[in-house]
Amino acid sequence: SFNAISGLLRNIVGGKVLTDTDLESPLKAMEEHLLKKNVAREAAVRLCEGVRQELTGQKTGNFQSVDSVLRAAMESSLQKILTPTSSLDLLHEIQAITSPATKQQAPRPYVISIVGVNGVGKSTNLSKICFFLLQNNYRVLIAACDTFRSGAVEQLRVHARNLRELSARENVGDVELYEKGYGKDAANVARDAVNYAATNKFDVVLIDTAGRRHNDQRLMSSLEKFAKFANPDKIFMVGEALVGTDSVMQARNFNQAFGPGRNLDGFIISKCDTVGDMVGTLVSMVHATSIPIVFLGVGQHYGDLRGLSVPWAVGLLMK
Amino acid sequence: MVLQDLGRRINAAVSDLTRSNSLDEKAFDDMLKEICAALLSADVNVRLVQSLRKSIKTTVHFSSLPPAVNKKRMIQKAVFDHLVALVNPHAEPFRPKKGRSNVIMMVGLQGAGKTTTCTKLARHYQMRGLRTALVCADTFRAGAFDQLKQNAIKAKIPYYGSLTQTDPVVVAADGVAQFKKERFDVIIVDTSGRHKQEADLFEEMTQIQTAVNPNQTILVLDSTIGQAAEVQSSAFKATADFGAIIITKTDGHAAGGGAISAVAATHTPIIFLGTGEHMMDLERFEPKAFVQKLLGMGDIAGLVEH
Ligand SMILES: Nc1nc2c(ncn2[C@@H]2O[C@H](COP(=O)(O)OP(=O)(O)OP(=O)(O)O)[C@@H](O)[C@H]2O)c(=O)[nH]1
Ligand SMILES: Nc1nc2c(ncn2[C@@H]2O[C@H](COP(=O)(O)OP(=O)(O)OP(=O)(O)O)[C@@H](O)[C@H]2O)c(=O)[nH]1
Ligand SMILES: [Mg+2]
Ligand SMILES: [Mg+2]
């Protein structure tokens, strides 16, 4: 492990000007440490290179080992990469659209669409977001725009029914499902759902989409039309914590799929409960795109949605 | 396709080395380094890569090679043998026999592709003259039964499931009992996605297994899985002792090294690859042919046979 190998160098303390040679072997150990945490190799190499540049020529403080200098530098690099440059207050943003401050601006439903590769947890995490919005007393329309995968519509029907019961019991919010069955063009269904929501005074529309491989040209290119028709305020991509190196290309290709001038607005990293401390996907996807992480999925139940705690993630990665 | 880029890189590293005039220890080390980097980029388990590197090094034992020996050939063979060993567990996969009930149970992580693969597999056996049926023992995931049912209807495969019974153990047992009575050759049981961190879910898997007593349990693994592959698949192995692996979504771009690491960690053969979302998208897996294709081998194909 990282500590075992770089432990050899722990004795070098105090007032030493660090050279490439001093750093080479501990950095190699650090890279392997990150790989074991499921950070994609490309991201791990870049992080280590950044740290190397930062530290070469730097003088270590008194009683400081190379090991601890490197550790501190990597910790702050991880912190930096994971911390969003602008924070997202989703509820605040929704409020601004559904109840605008000025009379000139007409209220309308806030539209969120969820995209991602097959089986990562799009529909489930959409339902969790719905639960969160219901708790905040919003009227939500779920649009079933996965018109391809068997059972996709019924899956959302069950979630909508469960969530409706929950919200009725607690007397907060309301949810309805908009669906047109299978085989229809997703972009058209999405547009119609948004119009329906506007007419019927829904606050938020949550659009589910079919899973697609990021290297499937045909399915990826249909996302551009989808974005045009649904015109979402936010496009969130779900990526699963289980995924390895593919996370980098998944993030890049989805980020580029919506046409010029339109990017992803955030990632939801699902299945964080299934990887222990191997949470490297968080780093890989942000490394690939600089798009922030907005939510983490931490289980299969409606309450299992969290915001990202950067110290928590960095703690696991450095453990 | 799985591991294609990896094959290209490994191949390039080996041919770079074997083409260079000065075949010295440093060139050999560089090649090993490049191969390891390629394996790591492909999500092969970090510890596995470390041991692979050591093992190739000791097999070849560069410094003590007598001058007469054909070094290039030796190195090539060592690399290929180690890669084949990685995907070839030397265990014969189960094959269902006509005329008796072969119960197959599918297990795996959430969203791996179990339900989709159930119908693909059912169709595969059906086309080979085995009477096949499907049982949906996923009572947890919303719409799971509808999903299996719609696929089964499309593929014209008889199916069993319940919209009211919430205990998957009961549904599994009832479904299997019914199809056994009707003398089906192959009965495939779909189960919910689960992971080792939730002990209750693993306990449930054991209960279903006890109830249906499968002839074969299959682990379904997503080809995009990363470093968690080893821990998760080892935990599934320890609890459900699956005898075969199916790797899904190989039509994607992922190198599949995580899934390959699961094979190495559990000494279990891969039997099929999922190659798309449609019913027909299933391919048989043959380890040797796979590595041959992976490495774009033609002229040196004979090496793998040893
Ligand atoms: N453990 C765990 N499981 C999750 C999480 N999020 C989703 N899942 C499970 O992952 C599986 C797939 O979830 P879905 O929501 O159907 O995934 P999807 O991306 O909509 O799938 P497709 O529409 O088929 O592409 C289900 O079994 C979910 O319960 C999570 O955060 N943790
Ligand atoms: N591209 C591609 N997609 C696949 C393949 N196999 C399955 N899928 C897709 O992966 C997603 C998840 O598949 P499911 O069969 O629902 O997975 P599961 O393991 O049953 O999921 P849970 O029951 O929720 O654990 C679906 O969108 C499938 O269409 C494959 O070989 N290639
Ligand atoms: Mg879905
Ligand atoms: Mg399923």
Question: Mind sketching the topology for me?
Answer:
The complex is a heterodimer of chains A (319) and B (306).
Chain A: H1 2-6, H2 20-36, H3 41-55, H4 66-82, H5 90-98, E1 110-115, H6 122-135, E2 139-145, H7 152-170, E3 174-178, H8 186-199, E4 204-209, H9 217-230, E5 234-240, H10 246-255, E6 266-270, H11 280-289, E7 293-297, E8 305-306, H12 310-318
Parallel strand pairs in A: 1-4, 1-5, 2-3, 2-4, 5-6, 6-7
Antiparallel strand pairs in A: 7-8
Helix pairs in contact in A: 2-3, 2-4, 3-4, 4-12, 6-7, 8-9, 10-11
Chain B: H1 4-19, H2 25-41, H3 46-60, H4 71-87, E1 102-108, H5 114-127, E2 132-137, H6 144-155, E3 159-160, H7 168-181, E4 186-191, H8 199-212, E5 216-222, H9 228-240, E6 244-248, H10 257-266, E7 270-274, E8 282-284, H11 287-294
Parallel strand pairs in B: 1-4, 1-5, 2-3, 2-4, 5-6, 6-7
Antiparallel strand pairs in B: 7-8
Bound molecules: guanosine-5'-triphosphate (2 copies) and magnesium ion (MG) (2 copies).
Give keywords.
heterodimer; A: eight-stranded mixed β-sheet; B: 306 residues; alpha/beta; eight-stranded mixed β-sheet; disordered C terminus; binds guanosine-5'-triphosphate
Structure description:
The complex is a heterodimer of chains A (319) and B (306). With 319 residues, chain A is α/β, with parallel strands linked by helices. Chain A is 48% helix and 13% strand. Chain A contains twelve helices and eight strands. Chain B has 306 residues and is of the alpha/beta class. Chain B is 49% helix and 13% strand. Chain B contains eleven helices and eight strands. Chain B has helices at residues 4-19, 25-41, 46-60, 71-87, 114-127, 144-155, 168-181, 199-212, 228-240, 257-266, 287-294, and strands at residues 102-108, 132-137, 159-160, 186-191, 216-222, 244-248, 270-274, 282-284. Chain B has an eight-stranded mixed β-sheet, with helices on both faces. In chain B, helix 1 runs antiparallel to helix 2 and helix 3 packs antiparallel against helix 4 (71-87). Chains A and B meet through helix 2, helix 7 and helix 10 of A and helix 2, helix 6 and helix 9 of B. One magnesium ion binds next to helix 6 of chain A.
